[in-house]
Amino acid sequence: MKLRYKILFIAIALIGLSSCKDFLEKVPDTRVYLVNLDQLEQLLVTAYTQTNYAALGELSSDNVIDTNSPSEDGMRYNYSSYNQYDEQIYAWEDVTLDISDSDTPSGIWNGCYAAIAAANAVLEKLGEFETEGAIEGEAITANDRARMDAIRGEALMIRAYHHYILAQIFCMPYSGPQKSATLPGIPYATKPETELDPKYDRGTLQQTYDNIENDMLEGLKYISEDFYEVPKYHFNIAASHAFAARFYTAKREYEKVIEHANASFKGTKPEAMRNDFWDKDFYDLDNGARYYTSVDRPGNYMMIDTYSTWLRRWGHRFWTAREGLRGSIGGPGPSWENCKFSYGSGKNKEEWSMMPCFMNSFLSSSAHSEYGAIFLGTCWEQFEYTDKIAGIGYVHMIRPEFTSQDVILLRAEANLFLGNVDAAFEDLYLWNHDHLKLDSTANYNMVELTKDLIVKFYNEDYQRRRDYTKFGIMKEFHIDEICPCEHPMTPEIEPYMQCIQHFRRIQNIHMGNRWFDIKRYGFSITHKMGINRVITLEVNDPRYAIQIPNEVIGAGLEPNPRPTPVVYQSMPVTRDARIVNN
Amino acid sequence: MQNHSVSVSGGTDKGSFYTSASVMTDPGWYKSSRVERYTFNANAIYNLTDRIRIKILNSDSFRDQKAPGTLSQNVDVVSGEVRRDFDINPYSFALNTARTVDPNQRYIRNYTTFNIFDELEQNYIDLNVTDLKFQGELNIKPIVKQDQSLEFNVLGSMRVATTEQNHYVLDNSNQAMAYRAGINPDNAIIRSSNSYLYTDPDVENALPETILDKGGMLFYTKNNNKSFTFRASGQYMKDFGHGNHLINLYAAMEAVRFDRFSESFNAWGIVYANGNLPFTNYKLFKQMQEENGSYYSVGEYHRRDMAYIANANYALLGRYILNGTLRYEGSNQMGKTSQSRWLPTWNVSAAWNIHDEPFFQNSAISKKAITYAKMRLSYSLTAESGPTSMANAEALYYPTRPWRQELDTYEMGLALSGLGNTELTYEKKHEFDLGIDLGFLYNRINLVFDWYVRNNFDLIGLIRTQGVGGDTNKYGNVAEMKSHGVEFTITSHNIEPKHRGDFAWDTDLTFSYTNTEITKLQSRSRVIDLVRGSGFPLEGYPHRAIFSIPFAGLDAHGMPLCIDENGNVSNVGLNFQEFEKLDFLKYEGPVDPTFTGGFGNNFSFKGFHLNVFMTYAFGNKLRLDQTFGAGYSDLTSFTKDFKNRWVLPGDEMVTTIPAIASRRQVYSNTYLGYAYNAYNYSTERIADGGFVRLKEISLTYDVPTRVISHLRLTTASVKLAATNICLLYADKKLNGQDPEFFNSGGVASPNPKQFTLTLRLGM
């Protein structure tokens, strides 16, 4: 009798203790453990930032104006800002009003570092596979090895690119090896974070750029298109070299810019640019935007899909209007000065010149300076529903991040600084030629670019004579003060540089990249705000480095220095400042 | 509402059984809210020998419920509005619809006709809940002696619970018609603005078209929960000295296996009017794919828990009792990693039966004055695993399908959804409890009193990190909270009956007081979180605290003014997303009451029992409903508050209720909407949450045995009960609003006033 109970008791105890490890190792849900190369490839699908620096860059730049400030004829509008923090960005103040929106500095910071975290997880796992010499218990094959190299190449490019974007936004522009060693960089993340609240060091700007360069060069060695399902949403070969060309332009290493630009063209000239887009007429705006950002366009090297409400600023307080519009897509240029458009009648009639190809791609049928305009290729949103019936979901904006047109302007700049004016002109000519909208050229007299046109148009006297100075097309370059280089700026190349910065401003409209150009060229820009506030950003202003997110400062990371105290100038209030209702 | 139940029980010393079945039908407290419930319980005990006992138990229930068709809600954090599409909850409809709207008329909503009664018939949810439980228990007593006993218990149980929900949206419901408004009947203006239509992006210059040409929809969801529990325990008791040294040892292990499978399916284009014929448009699938949606989803969740428990109890002389418990629990929620898997907790307690002490019995205090006295002390460490979403002891990756513009560019992806946190641990609590139980006047008055101090630490909270690892907003064990409180219950037999049927009167009073304070929390909350009615945690304040925006009067035009985050008087509201400057907010109080309790009186006389029960709560604050806005539509219902609103200049001296803004005022102040929302969240729109409620009055009559014995019944009673009768006290500002009800729309409805007649017969 007693023995039976003992056996029973022991049996119960054994059931209890034996299988308990397996029992508690059941995976609770659909989470995935990284064990094979498919999963690493899949993780890299989401390792591209989902936040968009367009709003931050544009609002900081000279492409956007405040419609609440009086226009030339004293007109003020009472549009509200789409987000209240837009006002802080526009005034180059620390953003404190919102830290949850994806368009804020916090959003950019989180988006880029989250992408880097995924890349670091992949790189760590690849290292584990290498040391084990096996994947899922099976020896690594030659094909595995090729795939592992391709994965490593992509992960390194991702890590380099996102740190580069962070450095462009939150640091001063690259200022040569000496000065950059004294400027704060951004923390360079190289391994997955496993603690709750680790503290990081910003390092110097030079260290940040060195790290980016190392990762980029290492990544370029391995990058391959053999294993991508959708190459244009990944760092393919053309996009990787386009990034390298952009990086070396920022570092002013012009020989390397040309080398990588050519590598991205896979020759000396791009296979295609945008001509097919400009040639097409779109009546439905969605169609036009989808065409521009489609993977089928050969000029698109890489697209990044982001969440952003940047487009919704249209019709609000800050947008590309007045001089922001006339100095970029909606204003005169060397080859399209005679393409005249007008809007309204009588006293309210406005006449201006602009590139005719943009006419069909504006959201508004006019490019009236007070109404502003949108170029839908670089600024359009599409909706993804998470709950169709409740109408909840995500707003997507696709960034054509690397394009052949952007690279050709980078190459023009490099050629110019290397003293090769003819080659630079040829690239500018190509860019201009691409925009000749064939069927409307006849009507609007847009012509092929010539050197004479450039020299004539980008001339201060000429601008003043034609009353263009108020548009601020031409800027004062301080590129050698920002970053000394063995190929300095000279008066001979100045008109061409003016042309390049103007074309780049048009090329990258609404994308935020203008802000990076302003910083590296050393421009001083002015924002008029509200009734009478005028804020000027001086050359090499500490505010070139946008303040790191508020909560990150709170967590102990060193903030960017700010000028103290900020003194604002006031302009006289025009007597007849009228308020116009929206 | 009707409830019928039949139960039968019986048995011998070899075994016994109990079986019952019941039917409950409730036609509902508002339109479209019927419930039916059927239950069956069976329970059998077999004594194989006098030392081995088997117990088999079965319990089944099925519930069939109807509810108005409703969708989930979402909150706009910028302006602070809560909205639901296609909301037809009759309670919120009645509350929020203008009295000028005739419920029998047809109006236009979502571009098509709408009538609330029609819609409730055309758009409803059928909910079926099946719950089955099977349990077997084996009990063995190898030793049964006077001074020693040993007992083993093995229990195995299995439970299946299935919930099926069918949301029927019939052919002619407003929700279905909205998907073809503008197409059928043809109307170019509606067509171009109706967002429920589909525009094919692959067709150049396509016109919007419908993806629901005919019929309606069926949204089906099913949840299947299966759980197995196995528990084995042993208990040993030994008496070393005739009741002077009593030892009780207990050990147990428990394993629980829980699996949930959930699936949902959306059927579009069911023609209900025509034999449920499927009439699906292929473009629906194209659109779904383009929007990264899906017409079905399948989910799974698995939970495995193990626990080992050991308990020792020692009683000395029957007066001093010492108790200690150790628990060692583990779960699979962290996944394959063994980190943070196991959790040890403990408890020690002591009790002292003072009334058994010789000095007490010999003391001058008479047995009559204090009959019973006991003191209890306990100190424990308990822990919880925190919310189930906190499972990132190592990095979490989930499969995902990122949205892409073109259908052929979709790729499968993995998302890093949580960074690893090697420091993750359980939420813990130290609790010290001191209790005194007293009985007076031969236990006619009893008091149970408890005082406790709790110290919660390692609580999961938000922490803002440097974000270099990929996330600035992390959750970790960073918060601490302490609380203390008092609870007591007094039971008094005021008048004891001398004989059966004489007048008797009993009184119960319960009281509890709790005070919580968050002592450590890094997160910085936004204004919108702090002023909303649901409350929010903030360091230095109670668990859920509510704040108000300081109201600064009305301006000369009747527009509301408030103090903004910079301390200025503002007529444009303020930034609801502000999270740094919060000092300007006025702390109102906790959302949860600090004093709660009940007061009950029971009178009996000759088979009649009268029960009067009241509940009370004090110490909390309530946010009033958001009734004010910069603009109102024809369908808005206005509360009585509007009677006293600002109408003429000068009224701002006498009223604090803002004017209805004119169109001109709305246009010239683009932030007026913020100002009105700030008013909704201001010091003006807060009420005291304290109340005294007459919760229940019931009168029961037990039919005398001599009457029922004629009817071959053993018991019979009639009971008439009224619940939620009225509020005896509540803040006047509430204007009749229920202080215990937080309206979130959807199927939420306040506590109904109920009258119940119960007839109970026993055979």
- Which range does the strand content of chain B fall in? over 45%
List segments of chain A where confidence is low: pLDDT < 50 over at least 5 consecutive residues: 566-582
- Cα-to-Cα separation, first versus last residue of chain A: 94 Å
Tell me the number of structural domains of chain A: 1
Oligomer: heterodimer
**Into which percent range does the helicity of residues of chain A fall?**
40-55%
CATH architecture of chain A: Alpha Horseshoe
CATH level-3 fold name of chain A: Serine Threonine Protein Phosphatase 5, Tetratricopeptide repeat
Overall form of chain A: globular
Strand order of the largest sheet of chain A: 5-10-9
What is the arithmetic mean of pLDDT of chain B?
A: 86
Parts with pLDDT < 50 across at least 5 consecutive residues of chain B: 73-84
Bin the helical content of chain B.
under 10%
The shape of chain B is: globular
CATH class identity of chain A: Mainly Alpha
Radius of gyration of chain B: 32 Å
β content of chain A, as a range?
Answer: 5-15%
Q: What class do helices, strands and sheet pairing of chain A give? A: mainly alpha
User: pLDDT average of chain A, as an integer?
Assistant: 88
Q: What class would the helix/strand composition of chain B place it in?
A: mainly beta
